[in-house]
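Changelog-adjacent note: as of this version, every example in the card shows the full chain rather than a window. The one below runs 196 residues end to end.
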Amino acid sequence: MSVRTQLDRIVHLLESRQPLPELRPDKVWNAALDEEITALDSLPGASSTAMIALKAGLHLCNDSLDRSHSYSQEIEDDAAGCYWHGLMHRMEGDYSNSKYWFYQAGSHPAMHSIGPKAAEWISRGIDGIAAAHQDRMIELLREMQHQHVWNSGLLTDAIELQESGRAAESTRGVLQYLQRHELIELLAYSRTAANG
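Full-length structure tokens:
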């Protein structure tokens, strides 16, 4: 099986995961897949930095926080590496560290595709959520709804609020969708970068 075919299969499995991944996973989703990601050969022509970022993303989409962290730490001078690093810290619950790494990533190109799609999705469901809840969570969702460029820090604030128990449980699914969307969009960017 070619590396591209193997990668296609891995990405398909990760993108079609059901149910949605937890905001703060406590174990690897698929241990066999995690080993397969680690053993994945480099794509022909891919830079080592691009492959490391891709593996950091694949592991994170598989809820393998420790392995993702190891890869992202290897490329802390790369915007994608910083972005993956920030996402990993958010998923482990280290929110201030997460925001530090988002700041280091800067205005990453993936943020330009994440923002509009997330805003559209929020727009379709915000009224039902807002009718039931008038709180800080709705303020954060409305702010995300009006972004043109994605701000990962806002979602981090919303997830921290959710995980602290200060938000209605009915918003958890919305946040899970948004986090998954962010992961999948950054994975797509990393995959394109690794394809050269």
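Structural remarks: Residues 110-132 form the longest helix (23 residues).
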